[in-house]
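Section: Multi-chain targets

For targets with more than one molecule, the full set of components is provided together so that the structure can be written out for the assembly as a whole rather than chain by chain. Components appear in the order listed by the source. The example entry contains two components.
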Amino acid sequence: MTEKVISQALSACKDAELFMTKTEEYPVVFEANKLQSVKSKLLQGYSLRVIKDGRLGFASDTEIDDSGSLLEKAIEASKFGPKARFGFWKGKRFPNAVVFQPKIVSFEMEEAEQLGSRIVARLRDLIPEIYVDVKLTRVFRENMITTRGGEKVYYKSIFVLLVSALLVREGEFLYINESKMSCDFPENPFGLIGEIAWKEKLCKNTIEPPSKKIPVIFTPKVVPDIVNALTTGLNGRMIITRSSPLTDRIGEQIVDERFTLYDDGLMDYGLMSSPFDDEGVPRQRFPLFEKGVLKNYLLDLSTASLLSSESTASASRTLLMPPVPSASNLQIQPGEMTYEEMIEDMEEGLIVDQVIGGGQSNLLGGEFSMNVELGFLVRNGRIAGRVRNTMVAGNVYDLLKDQLLGIGREATYEDGVLSPHLYFKDVSVAGKN
Amino acid sequence: MEGRGLPQYNMHQEMQVLQEVATVKERLEEAMSTLRVDYMDVRIEDRKETRIQYLGKNLDQIGEMHSFGGCIRVKDKGRWGIVSFTAMDDLNKSIFLAAREAKVGKAEGSEMAAVPPVKDFVKKPLKREDDPRQIPLQDKEKLVRHYNEMILKGRRISTSSVFYKDVGLKKFFMNSEGTYIEEDRVECGMSIQAIAREGSNVQRAYDSLGGTMGFDAVRNLDDKIQYLTESAASLLDAKPAKGGKFDCVIDQRLTGTFIHEAFGHMSESDHISENEKIRGLMEMGRTLGAEALTVVDDGTIPGCSGTNKYDDEGVASKKNYLIKDGKISGRLHSRETAGKMGEEVSGNARALDFRFDPIVRMTNTYIEPRDWKFDDMIKRIERGYYVKGSQGGMTNLDMFTFSAGEAYEIEKGEIKEKVRDLTLTGNIFETLKNIEAIGDDIEMFNSGGTGGCGKGGQVPLPISRGGPHVLIRNVIVGGR
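Its structure, encoded as tokens over all components, is:
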């Protein structure tokens, strides 16, 4: 059917592209220590883009047939559509990306239930009053893109394990969240149990933090919330509209020279890895910041054409939506300091390990202002206890430019970002005092 | 029988689009008799969505998305199996898959609250000129372009984003207890953003609006656009807010976000029913807030985004008092959580679309007005902030944050300089008690466009929120 739809479209329009995605998702959900549900999602979507009379048209549907109705809608939209200054990607070649693990396919719902039950049971052995939520999700995806250049397909598996532990003590809630997500089966899914138990011990004391500027360590779990402000500014859509503070600044020293950030769409088993992006452009590894100098923006075909540049293979779509530029796997180059050295270095400082309210501030301007959901106050080089009712705020450009004290030696892959700990000198912290 | 008052409603005459209804009904009845499970339901949706977006001077997207899909739920001995699908060919497979899923793990056993079966057809009457399905694409594009051009003409404005979305939804729900509901629904909304920039100083003002009243919701917005554009421009001169503990007067919109985050999510019983510690903290009658505080979630308010005659389990919506005179007085329930806790159903099991199963959600949430005048509230503040507009909020039930669109310093009872980048935080057991004055000027705000509530990956769910101006003491403000 896809050949038929694309050949109809190509005969009626100057150029055409059909994108198909099929997703099977199998979540097994435990809530408050109990199995809550076993679910399946069997979803497919087809998106047709056409260029007719120099304008871009789009339509999408969960089903296609040979009636030509999808094409009709795409042509109708093209009458009002934006001027297309680009053609769809016709290249056939693409690099190899390691994104499929057969073990995930053969892992059945009954095994997922057993794994979840064991994680819950082990945590309850260690901390009897704990409430544990576990979500184990297996995802299989087939993406296909068809243009005048022919048809390209890839298959991908994803395994996501989310564990959230909750302790309620004297009206205080303590959440400790840990996760593992990649295209590979986790080597040691029980590893995060030790992590949760260790952090729970650090939370025996609650301390009020000072309201002033103090040194802050952001752990790899929180770095994605900080980096989010950067990728908003790097997004081609914010560059073509000249609204990003990074507009027209390629080649400029923007931040500290110790800061290097890459986008790697080919990282082995990376959550966002694939042989080609959602417009068929071969994925690559490329610098966004190299030694603090701005090197590239995140571009898809459309934004690249408006900037007279090349796509960075950053096009991303969800089920029925048109493509937009988006980061794939981000990698921050590790530095020299260990996490322990950072802690020892602080006379009075804060470790931020979980936040709520990330992304609600003026991201485009680089601002963040977040509640510290899980964080520890350090006094004289040692963790003194947990903080509550605490806000941490700043501007990511300012911090990375003037306040960087150190970058961690080891990187951890969290939420699509391979990152070490980041250690800053003066960050605004607000508490009750 | 409600709605049209016919003695027997014939679905084939009304819902031509969903020819699949008859097949699904037949299959489900077959499955019910052979699979021997305790309960089964199915929801089928046919959605037509039009999207138009201007980004700066360029039209960024225009197009139509059509989707068809369903969600099947099977419950057996307390365990749920749930399957979402898009291909009708997968219907049989999905029914059996859901039944298999419901056999995984050991049975824990819990009963859903009983509700009487309902047969109904729900359609909100809409004038032809207000039905977005009857309005040509070019007229919609023209309106979006008009608003966009207005923003771009504004002083110090560098760019804009104007996003329009309408949804024509036909859906039907049936369960193994004899409930059968069909619905024809229209949603229409916009998200508007003005961005002002001078060098690396980038400021934005944002609004999201719309609802179920049709295209009329997005007409005549010139004044709003003007205000938004000016607000973004003047934020360029505002200095960043200082962090610390302050007394704050929040406006109606932020009051809505505040109560949605500070208490709304906590009254969703899926967080409460299985956790005895939280159940203990949330006992009916416990004093949580000031005596003047009454909080309501009401899924029946005409024109509001969260309004539905029935939720996605076929339970009728109603007005639920969550806090009355400072004391916990009600909760939001699905049939499952109401059954577990032995309480009345509230009609709050909602699903974003066919890809998801219904979970406990708010509808239209607000703080009831009292008799304070805005000026008198400001006069009571020695040093603090007047905080306006909302860029969203978040909660983990215990702590919550909510971000302002803009704010002004208050000194000795007078509104002073404009400041920016204010995020407020609090925790449920302290902040509600710190509410000192509640105004007399309630307003409700609909989510629309890209706005709405997020929970368990289901975002943006249409909701409304609001209230009057409110004075809160000792709020922790994140700032620089």
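The CA atoms of residues 150 and 326 of chain B lie 45 Å apart.
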